[in-house]
Design a protein that fits this description.
The chain is α/β, with parallel strands linked by helices. Helix content is 40%, strand content 14%. The protein has 2 domains: 2-220, NAD(P)-binding Rossmann-like Domain (Rossmann fold); 236-446, Rossmann fold, CATH 3.40.50.720. The protein starts with a helix and ends in a 19-residue tail after the last strand.
């Protein structure tokens, strides 16, 4: 009798939630309305759900409820339309989470100064959900973290309320896959990996995301899903570290690294093209491998590839400064007292995000050597740097002529690089963006230069797909 009753409760909880997801009557919650949470919330709205977005920042809440957007990839019109139709409600009131039948957690997971995971935001979100939890709730963690977080941190807090995961509530991990500024892949058409605590959790979370994402990929456990994200970005970090080291090798050998990479990329199998740069930045690649490295340290294992790649990538801003100093020296100028204009402080092309940007380290290193540094970025008029607001300057013939050296750190498409070459006296091009431009006033240096001059890209055979 008891087993029969429990079976009926189990079936009822799961099936009722699946039915409400199917007919779009379920209310969806998203905790954290940043670059992951807001796009996800808008996809749920587009799929026909009512969404409650919870954020601890009243400023963000007020901005969104006024129909504006603080995320570059989400137009204000999209937010305004969702708010006007009553399909999206942004709030800083925790109690409203009780109205939700599914909640996605998309909060930051930074690293501490000792490179250990800082789980404060995840724990705060988990505690908020636990206080508002009820039977028939699905909770999915999307924040990048170390393997074991969902089972070790999220599940106990929910079950402490007397709710059994897999019977009363459903808990899963689904790693965010957001590439800011990508014109092709966005939340809806990027496959979504889902791993749940129990098979019922996988079933419910899969149904939830299938309602608004084109392809959902279930895996066997939350640990597998957590590790998927870390593998993806560790793969990138290690390969970027490799090609950054190749740039240094090429410089010492007197070979142009861009020529080598372009020629290698013609191979139709067994090679994936990565390019060197001034360092790595953003919300994923500089941080995610350290979650895995930290977890392995707790298991008495050293992740040597990860540690080495991190060391090389972290060294690149210093390499850029050394290249700049050597280039100024060739012109009988010292770094101390020189005027340097940094082009681009965003961590990647055509976005407005400075998180972990190598440009910040480069600016600080140059200033420590006595340089006077200004910056221009068409997407970032100002940013906070260790408690100080830095403000950009306009890019003009005058500002280019003012600089003893111009450093191209982020290759935004909105910048006229021909004008840069025409009016600057020295350009240190860390992105090879000036290749193919007609000669101008500037002497051009890169991450690695051939002694006979710059490499001019030729038409090489097209690599088959």
């Amino acid at each position: 009798m008891l087993l029969t009753a429990l079976s009926a409760v189990n079936t009822s909880s799961k099936d009722q939630l699946l039915a409400r997801i199917s007919d779009r009557s379920a209310v969806i919650g998203v905790i954290g309305l940043g670059y992951v949470g807001l796009p996800l919330a808008m996809e749920f709205v587009q799929a026909g759900f009512t969404v409650i977005g919870y954020d601890v920042s009243q400023r963000v809440v007020d901005l969104l409820m006024s129909g504006q957007s603080h995320i570059q990839d989400i137009p204000a019109e999209t937010v305004h339309d969702a708010v006007a139709k009553g399909r999206f409600i942004a709030t800083a009131v925790e109690d409203r989470l009780r109205e939700c039948e599914a909640i996605s957690i998309a909060v930051p997971t930074p690293l501490s100064k000792t490179r250990d995971p800082d789980m404060a935001y995840v724990l705060s979100a988990a505690d908020a959900i636990a206080r508002q939890a009820h039977p028939g709730l699905c909770v999915v963690l999307e924040s990048t973290t170390y393997p074991g977080t969902t089972r070790e941190l999220l599940q106990p807090r929910l079950e402490a309320q007397g709710l059994i995961v897999g019977r009363d509530i459903f808990v899963a991990f689904s790693p965010e896959r957001v590439d800011p500024g990508n014109p092709v892949y966005h939340t809806k058409n990027t496959p979504k990996v889902v791993g749940g605590i129990t098979p019922a959790c996988v079933e419910v979370a899969t149904a939830l995301y299938q309602s608004c994402i084109d392809i959902v990929v279930p895996v066997s456990s939350p640990e597998a899903a957590e590790l998927v994200k870390l593998l993806e970005n560790t793969f990138r970090a290690v390969n970027i570290g490799l090609v950054n080291e190749i740039a240094i090798v090429c410089d010492k050998l007197g070979v142009n690294v861009w020529e080598v990479i372009d020629a290698a990329a013609t191979k139709p199998f067994g090679f994936m093209k990565f390019t060197p740069g001034p360092g790595i930045g953003g919300h994923c690649i500089p941080l995610d491998p350290h979650y895995l490295a930290w977890k392995m340290r707790t298991l008495n294992y050293k992740t040597r590839f990860i540690d080495l790649a991190s060391e090389i990538n972290a060294h690149m801003p210093e390499w850029v400064v050394r290249r700049t100093a050597a280039s100024l020296n060739d012109m009988s100028k010292a770094v101390n007292g020189s005027r340097v204009l940094v082009l681009g402080v965003a961590y990647k092309r055509d976005i407005d995000d400075v998180r972990e940007s190598p440009a910040i380290d480069i600016i600080q290193l140059l200033e420590n050597l006595g340089a006077h540094v200004e910056y221009h970025d068409p997407h970032i008029s100002s940013f906070m740097d260790e408690g100080t607001i830095r403000r950009g300057i306009q890019l003009s013939a005058e500002s280019l002529g003012w600089a003893d050296a111009v450093l191209i750190i982020t290759d935004h498409t909105a910048v006229n690089y021909q004008s840069v070459v025409d009016h600057a006296s020295l350009v240190v091009d860390t992105r090879n963006i000036t290749v193919g431009l007609r000669p101008g006033r500037a002497r051009i240096r890169g991450l690695a230069d051939h002694p006979d001059g710059r490499y001019e890209r030729r038409k090489l055979p097209r690599r088959s797909s």
